[in-house]
Every structure is written in C-alpha cells, then in structure tokens.
Design a protein that fits this description.
Layout lengths: L1 H13 L9 E2 L18 E8 L8 E2 L3 H15 L4 E4 L14 E14 L24 E13 L6 E13 L5 H28 L1
Parallel strand pairs: 1-3, 2-4, 2-5
Antiparallel strand pairs: 5-6, 6-7
C-alpha cells in the first residue's frame, strides 16, 4: 500500500513533464486594491480588455477567456470608482478611440502556467514587445503580461500612452499543480499593481 501511494505521488509530481506543451489556466483569486476615490472624478472612460493569448489545444483551462477579461475590467472599474467607466466588448478593441473622452485598452498577452520553457508557447504579441529574460527548465513557470494603451482625447491637445507589463514567477515542482496555481496568481497580482500604477502616473503628470 505504501509503495502504491508513493508511486501515485511521484506520478502526480512528474506528470507535467509528460504533457509537452500543455498549459494551465486557473481563475485568479479576489484582489483587494485601494480605491482611488476622487481621482478622475466624473471623467468619461471607455474601457476594453482583449485576450491576445495563443493557448494550445492541450491546455487545461479552468477559467475561460471571458471571465478573465471581465475580472480585469471590473477590477479597474472598482479601483477608480469616481470615474464614469463604460466597459466595452472585447470586439471593440480595434475601433478608433472617441474624441472628448478617455479610452483605455488592455490586451492580455499572457496569463498561464506551464512546466519549463513551454510557458513561452502561449504568449501573444499584440501591441507589445516583451522581454521575459531566462525561463528556467525543470520548474513550474507562470506568466502574466499586458499591453496597455491610453488615449486622452478630452481636448485638442491629445495624449497617448503605451506600456508593457510582464511578470514571471518560477518555483520547483514540490507541490504539483498547487505550486503552478499559486505562482500564476502571484504574477497576476503583480501585473495589476503595475497596471494601476501606470494609469495613476499617466493622469497625474
């Protein structure tokens, strides 16, 4: 019985090695972000979040694209409660921004985990040039990446901003899928922190 239990445990740990380019996606945990009350008060903002990832058919997906894009959009809306944020469908990502208002476009280039360098397979490239550095082999790797575009067309003096966010976390395969899920959430939290910091700094200049 002990030998059987040990065999099952080892199979669980090494299973990521046997699935090649299989990638894993779990829904992020709830994130508590300090609200920017009074910031951008009564300013009209069109917000669109687009999923640009290229996940493989082998991927184990437990959180659908629509849920991920909606989570990010709602988190932005909650963080800036004084702004008048209009969340647009993802299909509107390629439409031109409107005059007289602010438009914020967020494309998701990465949000997944994989074993070893396979994590690079699912990274999209729309709107961003990302430098992830060295991705370790023999470890769980998780990535979250965004490209954010801001169009401030409230006046004739139009302002544009473009920023790439890429977060990578790696851990030894000590806890199986639980390790991958935890580090994926870590990269998500860190990416969102940088996202809000960029929005804050853009409009505080």
């Amino acid at each position: 019985m002990k030998k059987l239990s040990l065999l099952l445990f080892l199979t669980f740990l090494i299973s990521p090695l046997t699935f090649g380019q299989k990638m894993y996606v779990w829904c992020p945990k709830e994130q508590m972000v300090p609200q920017r009350k009074g910031f951008l008060a009564n300013q009209k903002i069109d917000l669109v979040v687009f999923d640009a990832r290229t996940l493989t058919p082998k991927s184990k997906i437990e959180c659908e694209s629509k849920e991920i894009t909606n989570n990010i959009a709602q988190l932005i809306k909650q963080t800036y409660p004084s702004a008048l944020i209009n969340i647009l469908p993802s299909e509107n990502y390629y439409q031109n921004p409107k005059d007289g208002i602010i438009t914020i476009k967020v494309s998701i280039s990465a949000y997944h985990a994989a074993f070893g360098a396979n994590v690079k397979v699912g990274i999209g490239s729309i709107g961003g040039d990302f430098s992830w550095g060295v991705i370790p082999e023999g470890k769980w790797n998780a990535v979250t990446g965004y490209n954010i575009k801001i169009y401030d067309y409230r006046s004739e003096n139009k302002k544009k901003g473009n920023h790439n966010i890429g977060k990578l976390a790696s851990r030894p395969n000590t806890g199986g899928y639980r390790t991958a899920k935890n580090i994926l959430n870590i990269t998500y939290l860190e990416a969102n922190q940088e996202l809000f910091s960029y929005i804050d700094n853009f409009f505080m200049e």
